[in-house]
Amino acid sequence: MDGSRLPDAGSGVSAPPDAPELLSGSAAPARLAARRQQRQEAARRRRRRRRRLLLGVAVLVLLSPVVYSYATTMLQPSSLPLGVRSVEWLRAHHGNWLVDEVEHFYYGWTAPAKGGPQLKSLPAVGLAPAASAPTGRPARARARVTAWPPRIKPLFAHPLPGEGIWKQTGPPVDGGPPVLVTTFRTEPDYPRIVAYLAWFDHTRTALAFYPGRYEPPSAPVRGPMSVPQSQHWRLLATFNSGFVYKDGLNGSSIDGRTYEPLKDGLATLIGYRDGRVDITSWNGGPDAGPQVAFARQSLPLIIQNGQLNPALNDSSQWGYTLGNAIRVWRTGVGIDRRGNLIYAAADYQTVITLARILQHAGAVRAMQLDINPEWPTLITYSHHGGLGPTKIVPNPMQPATRYLVPDDRDFFAVYRRIPGPVTVPFK
């Protein structure tokens, strides 16, 4: 037997202590410090969350009227796309300055440069060139034909086929076309700009003015806010009206009712009960007389006595947002020396160039209507297999059925003339 023995457990000799036990004295404060830091970080996170929550609640409280206003506006019936309605809502709620700045930048950026390639053809409008009267026709018929507008003289040395030549659009009335349309290039410096025009024979047509869903804002009677179904059989054309009331304080009247008070000094398109139409600078007080079927105002005259209004250089009068100098879609209406109405629309126009278009087409007095690409609308109706609506002005934002269903804005309808005093039929 081996004489060596294992050490006695009780001999006083022991194994070295475990490492954790050696560090326990220094680790405890570190662990406490770490836990304290974690608690502080958690408290800071909670405070940050509370601040963000309070800020979010405050923003929500502040924005809730805005959100409510926008949501309720967008949920209301409308004929406009969401984007256009959103811009209109922003304009109406103190954001006009922002929209104005964006439009100034955008239209300035997209303004056409002078020169460039020539067009090879013009947009096709109308059905066929208006025929001349045979010499054997009665004198009365020949007199009516001579009242047709002459060809608009082209401004280019080499006119394009059909340029400035009037064409009929729908069924004849009393042996002749009541509505004629044409196109022509407006400025030699800008060879790709095209104007779209319509001419309405006041002896064969009757003009009517209708309120829309929201314009004029104080309309005592809105009616169908579209062309009444019962009048479709004699509908020949429709076109857009002028600026909204808040942008021009433009007065209006229908069938003896004042829709917005008429304002002296503003250009006014007037339809009389005897069938005449006129454009004049209003000077008759806030209400129209009993001889007036309708009246609609829009800014001051742009043409008077055949001459451009010399105040056209004053941008404050010619567009609440864009003034007179920004090139944009513009529309206008004039009266020729025989009392016939001329409608014009063209892109990239200032108010001065718009006035020149109407003057060149034969207008002796004229007014600007609505502007910007959303609004120009000229639609004719062929009555071939139905109404046959056709957009003359190529506006992709508006359908050819505009004004056949309720529309947000007021507008004009051109009807076949029928015997008796002219009124604005709502049924």
Notes on the protein architecture:
By secondary structure, the chain is of the alpha+beta class. The protein folds into 2 domains: 41-109, no CATH class; 128-416, no CATH class. The protein is built from 5 helices and 19 strands. The protein has helices at residues 19-75, 82-109, 139-146, 245-248, 351-360, and strands at 128-129, 167-168, 179-187, 190-200, 205-210, 235-240, 252-254, 257-260, 267-272, 277-281, 292-297, 303-304, 307-308, 328-336, 341-349, 363-371, 378-381, 389-391, 411-416. The strands form 4 sheets. Strands 1-2-3-4-15-14-16 form a 7-stranded antiparallel sheet, with helices on one face. The longest helix has 57 residues, at 19-75. The radius of gyration is 36 Å and the shape is elongated. The model is unreliable at 1-13, 18-23, 131-137 and 141-146 (pLDDT under 50).
Give the SSE layout.
Blueprint: H1 19-75, H2 82-109, E1 128-129, H3 139-146, E2 167-168, E3 179-187, E4 190-200, E5 205-210, E6 235-240, H4 245-248, E7 252-254, E8 257-260, E9 267-272, E10 277-281, E11 292-297, E12 303-304, E13 307-308, E14 328-336, E15 341-349, H5 351-360, E16 363-371, E17 378-381, E18 389-391, E19 411-416
Essential attributes:
427 residues, 24% strand, 2 domains, 5-stranded antiparallel sheet, elongated, 7-stranded antiparallel sheet, 19 strands, alpha+beta
Round the mean pLDDT to the nearest integer and report it.
86
Helix content: 25-40%
- The N- and C-terminal alpha carbons lie at a distance of 132 Å
The shape, in one word, is elongated
- Structural class comes to alpha+beta
Number of helices: 5
Low-confidence spans: pLDDT under 50, at least 5 residues?
1-13, 18-23, 131-137, 141-146
Radius of gyration: 36 Å
Number of strands: 19
Instruction: Please provide the ordered H/E string of secondary-structure elements.
Output: HHEHEEEEEHEEEEEEEEEHEEEE
Integer count of domains: 2
**Widest beta sheet: strand line-up:** 1-2-3-4-15-14-16
Report the sheet-strand fraction: 15-25%
- Specify the biggest β-sheet: 7 strands, antiparallel
